[in-house]
Please model this.
Amino acid sequence: MVVMVKYSDDFKQEVIAATRKRHEPRAQIARQYGIAASTLQNWLDRFYAANPHEVQADHEALLKERDRLLAEQAELRKQFNWS
Model:
C-alpha cells in the first residue's frame, strides 16, 4: 500500500527556495527535508512551468557563482604558485 503525503504549500515553497538559493545537489536537499528527490523535481518542474522567467534568473545566479568560484580558484593558484 502506498501512502500519499500532502505537503503544505508553505513547506513546498520553503524547499523550492532552499534549492534555488543553496546550489547543492537536489538529492541532498531532498534528504535534508525528508522528501524523495523525485518529489522535489516535480515541485521544481511545476514552479518553473508557472514562473518561466525564474529559469533565466537562476541561470544568471549560477553563472555568477561559477565566475566567483573560478576567480577564487585563480587566486588560490597564484597564492600557492600552482599552474
